[in-house]
Write a structure and sequence with these properties.
Length: 255
């Protein structure tokens, strides 16, 4: 009897196993009960290339230092709660992959700037949301809607403000603005973006009210068009363009 070896299986060769490697995170820590000033602390963690900074923070908190404090919720870039500075840039920790950073050097992580630091990577968001509420970010109309129908809007009218509906209120844009860092009264990019969303909504009747609010020394005219806000937005909103469109509407006297 003749023995015949099995033919090699067809198809691509199996991929090499994915290996973990050591990543160093240097985190700016602050405990108001202990520290007079923030301090830097480094941690070495075993990570995979496709892991996120949020995964690294979880490993540190769960396995090395349970006192590490940060905000997170959905972990899918929707809630906006885990905005922080990663290697000097505002990003969402849940959307920042290890492989997209230079892991030959330590990864620096700190709280976003311009808002009061509470603990570690957490800031007081109240000033941010106060500016957001001040621009009246909700639909206002004195005209009754059609009976048993929604308020109809054309595709073109919807497209006019579609970009600014994407805001998740993470504060990445506002806390990347150098004007906001030095002027706590400035509304900031996120508030202006959310005003834009209703100023240009054809169903809304309070556009002029919002334009009057933003036509202030701490409103749109404080913007210096540095594009930091646009670069920082994790949703890709053209923030600087939206601010420019609000300025133009103020000068025209109408949206």
């Amino acid at each position: 009897m003749t023995l015949v070896a099995d033919a090699p299986a067809s198809g691509p060769a199996p991929e090499a196993p994915i290996e973990a490697f050591t990543v160093t995170l240097i985190i700016r820590r602050f405990d108001p009960d202990v520290d007079d000033e923030p301090r830097w602390q480094d941690f070495d963690v075993q990570m995979f290339a496709t892991d996120r900074i949020l995964d690294a923070l979880h490993k540190i908190k769960w396995e090395q230092d349970g006192s590490l404090t940060f905000r997170r919720s959905c972990a899918h870039g929707i809630c906006g709660s885990d905005a922080m500075r990663i290697n000097g840039r505002n990003r969402l920790a849940c959307k920042t992959l290890i492989k997209d950073l230079d892991i030959t050097k330590p990864i620096y992580v700190e709280a976003i700037k311009g808002l009061p630091l509470e603990k570690d990577l957490i800031v007081d968001m109240d000033p941010f949301f106060e500016s957001f509420r001040e621009v009246q970010p909700f639909l206002q109309s004195n005209t009754a809607p059609p009976k048993d129908k929604e308020r109809i809007q054309s595709v073109a009218d919807r497209a006019r403000f579609d970009d600014t509906t994407k805001c998740i209120l993470c504060a990445a844009c506002t806390s990347s603005c150098p004007v906001f860092w030095t002027d706590g009264q400035y509304f900031g990019p996120a508030a202006i973006v959310n005003a834009h969303r209703f100023i240009f909504d054809s169903r809304d009747e309070a556009a002029q009210t919002r334009l009057d609010i933003l036509n202030d020394k701490e409103g749109v005219w404080r913007c210096r068009t540095t594009f930091n806000c646009t670069d920082a937005c994790p949703r890709g909103i053209q923030v600087t363009q939206a601010i420019a469109e609000v300025k133009q509407a103020i000068m025209r006297g109408k949206p």
